[in-house]
Amino acid sequence: MFKDAIIEEINSVVNHSRQAFQQYKKYSFKQRADLMRAIANELELCGDDLIKIAMQETNLPEARLRGERARTIFQLISYADACEKGDWLDIRIDTAIADKNPPKPDIRKTSVPLGPVVVFGSSNFPFAYSTAGGDTACALAAGCSVIIKAHPAHAQTSEMVANAIHTAIEKCKMPEHIFSHVHGASFEVGKALVTHQYIKAVGFTGSFIGGKQLFDWANQRKEPISVFAEMGSVNPVFLLNEKLNQSANDIAKQYAASITLGVGQFCTNPGLIIGIKSDALNTFIHSLSDEIKKIAPAKMLHSGIANAFYQKRANALQQSNVAVVAESETNADENSGLPTIATVDAKTFINNPLLHQEVFGPYSLLIQCTDINEMLLVANHLEGQLTSTVMATENEFKENIELIDTIKNLCGRFILNGVPTGVEVCRSMMHGGPFPATTDARFTAVGADGIKRFARPIAYQNWNNEFLPDELKNENPLNIWRMINNEWTKNPV
Amino acid sequence: MFKDAIIEEINSVVNHSRQAFQQYKKYSFKQRADLMRAIANELELCGDDLIKIAMQETNLPEARLRGERARTIFQLISYADACEKGDWLDIRIDTAIADKNPPKPDIRKTSVPLGPVVVFGSSNFPFAYSTAGGDTACALAAGCSVIIKAHPAHAQTSEMVANAIHTAIEKCKMPEHIFSHVHGASFEVGKALVTHQYIKAVGFTGSFIGGKQLFDWANQRKEPISVFAEMGSVNPVFLLNEKLNQSANDIAKQYAASITLGVGQFCTNPGLIIGIKSDALNTFIHSLSDEIKKIAPAKMLHSGIANAFYQKRANALQQSNVAVVAESETNADENSGLPTIATVDAKTFINNPLLHQEVFGPYSLLIQCTDINEMLLVANHLEGQLTSTVMATENEFKENIELIDTIKNLCGRFILNGVPTGVEVCRSMMHGGPFPATTDARFTAVGADGIKRFARPIAYQNWNNEFLPDELKNENPLNIWRMINNEWTKNPV
């Protein structure tokens, strides 16, 4: 429906984006925040039309899409508030000490935006991690201009959101090209954007292969740039026996729902469950199977995602010692994902890297260990993850310190007695984890701390108060928290 | 004198370092801080012997080395204080909201150490950026084990400092292998360390070629890791005419001293001076020449550095339109660096990339522009820098907003009416800048914020208070600043 951008168009878009950045970075935090709130408002004003188009393009149900739009609006508004509050600037002020030898100058540190940022829309979050999603909101808050590479699977939704953003920009009388929208199904479009000398950072949510490719291109540039790619994760869940003894059925219900939530199309989907062979585990398996059998298959995002699901599922199931434990008892229509639980012994799992890979969809692999030592061995053989989860009693927690510590070191978010699906938008959120979960485990993709991805620190030495940016001025006109001579305060210097 | 480590030794060192890391990361912040203070104490106890050995190996004068040791001790102690104060953890706590739909869980974010870190000692700071230098101090504060690749030019100094560290570790009853010392003059030693799967981050201070090579190796790993390489910088200084009119002679004296400080062997050495052709600039040139002629050459760090200085200096001087303005009138002995000022017109500079490269030593290139627009053009053609400096009156500052903004965007530290040499150790310091000055402009190599380089955030969701790390517990037992529900406080939850 939409043609891929050609190189000349991409060059023109990037040049305009760079010019607009030069203007946009001078706007105050309040003006940036007002723009973000205006975008939120325009998304609301898109009304039912936007939901309908997104339903057609993504197969996602209406309630989910309405919820996701509300989340996207909340993100824009909460990051706008954070942008104004200025905590993301990490202000440090050290005042001069004239009688030190040599004299200590006045130094004040704040953050400045990196430059034009390319954001690749994700397939599984047509609103919250696409055109006006978390990466765009963070980049705009930081003072960067944004170029969106629309996800081809929901290009029309993306176009409509882009129009809403452009309307907001116009209403705020901001430079038109601080936001640009590029279509492209081919990898050439992505490559041309990421390797363009004026692009200074990249946000991406999607597959490992896609994210790693962008990372490599970015690092091979004459001037390497940061890529914040959120890629695959199997989000391991460790079930300890005393906990299972207490509530195997409840946990099974909780996990059947989590595994199949949104047809399993969440980056925090629990794709690995690790238990210890026992009566309690058998009860859990039995109960989980009963639940899974009852859950009807539902349409996946698009045929490409569905095909990949069935191919990866088939690859996993045909590995030796892998067996299906339960499948939905309802037949799957075309492009629907069949809820599936498979199982394998720990030794096979450890020795077969293919089984460590994500099967994106309503699928989970249950690893059966002979004892707690083998469970530790599994933990020691896992790759970096967005999340890891422990289901344990207080007693089990105290008795398995090394296991808990090992599980902790796998992930960016560490859950006790819960499910990994459901990612709160708040300051404490860490959505990012050691490679290969993301390409930069030091930054979060969810929550206002994500703004920091698109800024870098700069120190002003020996500047007159009137020439400093507002956030560094003596009188603290923005009324933000600042670390002055090693103490946090809102007081003036 | 010291043999290069062989692969088997390196594997053994890394394995031990990893085991020690598993222990070390469990120590409290206070215990880590006490270790760092003990190392500072041992450095002091090395007394004159250490200074003598360093003098022999580096040709640096006694006063400088005593000062550098004091700085190194100050770094260890101030980062130890910061480690205990916990600001580097960037704590965020959001408490649960049970009646939200869906319920919002309790989430608390802190930071955890990355793992074993390799630090490459620098040649120009045998104490402050070598064995017990800033990178080592930051990594130990973060909870990482450290492997030092000793700089071959001061291997004996490095060995003595390493012994001091080992004594401190022993006195603190810490695991022996949290610190390891490896010799190696060949690139194979560095490559084996950086590409070892158990190494999780790299600190480096040195040449662009060396740093970029480490960066590439690290990114080509199966699991890419962070490299914090502080590489070359020419630290441009922009002289505006009104300011020169007021004080050309004073500025010339200030800069003659800065250019030749430590025989020009500082990463913040002002290697480029950009002025506008005028009587004021002529006065400055005349005065700077007079000063430079009077400054005697001094021994450089070692013959390799001296040879590189003369080769790069000769390469620069033989470019067309480059002329020598002034040299020291004293002949240079073997391995001594001859203070030199060269000049070139702006057009030639813009079109000749070789002239943009650092000549490490007492050398500065003065670029003469026809007007302020050409000065802006030069600024627009410069690469990323550690620092940039503007010498201007208030009036000139107000009239040249675009020029000032362009100069700002080049660098990590932005100086008004001062010199770039002299890097304060404090929280507000930003020692790092856009590529190619460093490989990661989001982090500083000087000041306690440098601890953040060796840690990553992790969020605890739904944890019992007693199982949380101390810094996240309700009662705030460490009495540190935490952002609770979006507000900074030291109060308990």
Summarize the structure in short:
The structure is a homodimer of 493-residue chains. Chain A has helices at residues 7-24, 29-45, 47-58, 62-85, 134-142, 155-171, 187-194, 208-220, 241-260, 279-294, 303-317, 346-351, 372-380, 394-399, 401-408; strands at 92-94, 107-113, 117-120, 146-149, 179-182, 201-205, 226-230, 237-239, 272-276, 298-299, 323-327, 336-337, 340-345, 363-369, 385-391, 411-416, 455-461, 482-484, 487-489. The first copy, chain A, is α/β, with parallel strands linked by helices and 493 residues long.
Secondary structure elements and pairings:
Two copies of one chain form a homodimer.
Chain A: H1 7-24, H2 29-45, H3 47-58, H4 62-85, E1 92-94, E2 107-113, E3 117-120, H5 134-142, E4 146-149, H6 155-171, E5 179-182, H7 187-194, E6 201-205, H8 208-220, E7 226-230, E8 237-239, H9 241-260, E9 272-276, H10 279-294, E10 298-299, H11 303-317, E11 323-327, E12 336-337, E13 340-345, H12 346-351, E14 363-369, H13 372-380, E15 385-391, H14 394-399, H15 401-408, E16 411-416, E17 455-461, E18 482-484, E19 487-489
